[in-house]
Amino acid sequence: MQNKPNAVRIPVDGAVLNGDLTLQPSASGVVVFAHGSGSSRHSPRNRAVAASLQERGLGTLLMDLLTNQEEMVDEQTRQLRFDIELLAERLVAAMGWLHLDDRTRDMKIGLFGASTGAGAALFAAAARPQLAQAVVSRGGRPDLAGPALASVRCPTLLIVGEYDEQVIDLNREAMEKMAAPTRLVIVPRATHLFEEPGAIDDVARLAGDWFTEYLAPGPQEPGSVESSMRGGSSHVTGSRA
Asked: 80 is in which domain, residue-wise?
């Protein structure tokens, strides 16, 4: 049985961010979700992935990356949602908070980023390599992490829909700049938001496999996965019609 989420408030640079923390008994890892532009911790697709991770025994932290006041400003300007350094700072603060909290201090931390949130997740992973153990990107913009891509050390999984052609190209270009073990998986018949029947289930399964492996108990040095994965790509052999 899954535990109910706990509402948490994460302090960061004089501000406070809202989050939903769900922990499973004997969980060895917790995954922080970074939503995409114009979204929030209530994103239905991220919540679907989080529920799947919880079923596999992982903890999850769904959090807002902007304060309520900042969200109001962003609705008008649409600038903060693309401020990757700011969003990455918020994720770094969240990882630090998890590392200090009695409930999660012994857990390994993974980052799951969607759209622009993926760029922020990779930026944060580069900034705190001792905390970030794995990253998964869904329809992400890893290119937005810029020069920080070269400093990412943890195993990174990039998931993109088959019909999201421009984002596929951006992910492949980003992979060329990464030294970390990285894999690109293209989900057949899926678009950018993975709204097609079964598409988000494929994402959840892939993310669950990745995090289950790299957030497992025991020592795991960032970047220790086989280097032969670097630069590789593959298609999901999905079972949906």
From this structure: 13-18+39-214
Quote the tokens at residue 92. 């770094």
Contact 182, 228 (CB under 8 A): no
State the Cα torsion 201-44-164-233 to the nearest 10°. -40
Where do we find the tokens 């984002």? Answer: 167
The secondary structure of residue 144, as a DSSP letter, is: G
Cut 0.90: pTM above it: no
Tokens of 75: 């609705």
Query: One-letter amino acid identity for 154?
Result: C
**Are 117 and 36 within 8 A, CB to CB?**
yes
CATH code for position 115: 3.40.50.1820
- Spatial CA neighbour of 98 closest among 80, 124, 72: 124
72 lies in a domain? yes
Going residue by residue through the chain (241 aa), what tens digit of pLDDT does each one get? 457 788 999 998 888 999 999 998 888 899 999 986 655 677 888 999 999 999 999 999 999 888 878 777 767 776 676 789 989 999 999 999 999 999 999 999 999 999 999 999 999 999 999 999 999 999 999 999 999 999 999 999 999 999 999 999 999 999 999 999 999 999 999 999 999 999 999 999 999 999 999 998 876 554 333 322 333 445 543 322 2
